[in-house]
Amino acid sequence: MSLAETPADLNDRATTGLQDTVWSRLRFEAATAAASEPMLASFLNAAILRHDSFATALAHRIAAKMADPQLDVLQMHDVVANALNKQPALADRAAADMLAVDERDPACQSLLQPFLYFKGFHALMSYRIAHWLWREGRETLAFHLQSRCSERFGVDIHPAARIGSGVMIDHATAVTIGETAVVGDDVSLLHEVTLGGTGTEHGDRHPKIARGVLIGAGAKVLGNITVGEEARIAAGSVVLNPVPARCTVAGVPAKPIGGPCAEPSRTMDQTLAGGG
To answer: Do the domains 1-153 and 174-271 sit in the same CATH topology, yes or no?
Structure first.
């Protein structure tokens, strides 16, 4: 599969196994949390336990987070539920994203945290709904969700961007992803990452991030350049040139400083050669 064809545009049929796995864990963790913290029992019941599937719970949660004076929670729920119904694979991607957070974030103690609280997950799921609307030709509503996501979570993802599954946006504040950007499967991005352009030109002008890439906090990747599979971009770097696969780059402007790091987006290994 080329970088121009990500799972965000293909494989629209869902595979329920992944959702079932996540849903089973989520319900168990919610019931356990409700028993241990009775003050949150009503909230956990409304958010998770009263629903009959992962997709219906997901629609409820994203609607609750994204509702605003223009689209109240019932209207927003209709938008999200319609997207999940028309493209069931969206819930698969959400499940894969939650498992990515659970695997890669040492602060994550259960699936409850990304589902209920982590704005990186909420922003990514809100983008996925906006992207579906964009593909359906409903650009005005897609832009409304983009704006609301920026206001609500401090994350600005253009609805036309293409993002694969199993993606983690850790902490998420100030992440910006441009219109023609492509992000492959199993990528990890930290806060203040920008996938941007280099000027006022139109057309294909944003980065293409391949599978398994790790992009550190505050890194800026600019222009229509490719970052190869399982590459690492160090925190604070400014990347203006293509990055080979399984290469580590750092600096302003970024330059290669080291060799392969196995599955960097999964290990979240941000140590550099000669560093501690």
So the answer is: no
Q: In this predicted structure, what is the pLDDT of residue 179?
A: 98
The residue ranges of every structural domain in the chain are 1-153, 174-271
pLDDT value, residue 180: 98
Whether the model pTM is above 0.70: yes
Question: Residue 211: pLDDT above 50?
Answer: yes
Q: In three state form, how does the secondary structure of the chain look? A: CCCCCCCCCCCCCCCHHHHHHHHHHHHHHHHHHHHHCHHHHHHHHHHHHCCCCHHHHHHHHHHHHHCCCCCCHHHHHHHHHHHHHHCCHHHHHHHHHHHHHHHHCCCCCCCHHHHHCCHHHHHHHHHHHHHHHHHCCCHHHHHHHHHHHHHHHCCEECCCCEECCCCEECCCCCCEECCCCEECCCCEECCCCEEECCCCCCCCCCCEECCCCEECCCCEEECCCEECCCCEECCCCEECCCECCCCEEECCCCEEEECCCCCHHHHCCCCCCCCC
Give the count of beta carbons closer than 10 Å to the beta carbon of residue 270: 17
Tokens of 21: 């796995």
CATH of 1-153, one of 1.10.3130.10, 3.40.50.300, 3.30.1390.10, 3.30.1380.10: 1.10.3130.10
Per-residue pLDDT averaged across 217-244, rounded? 98
For residue 264, whether the previous peptide bond is cis, meaning omega lies within 30 degrees of 0, is no
**Architecture field, domain 174-271:** 3 Solenoid (2.160)
* Higher pLDDT, residue 262 or 14: 262
CA atoms of 90 and 73, how far apart (whole Å): 20
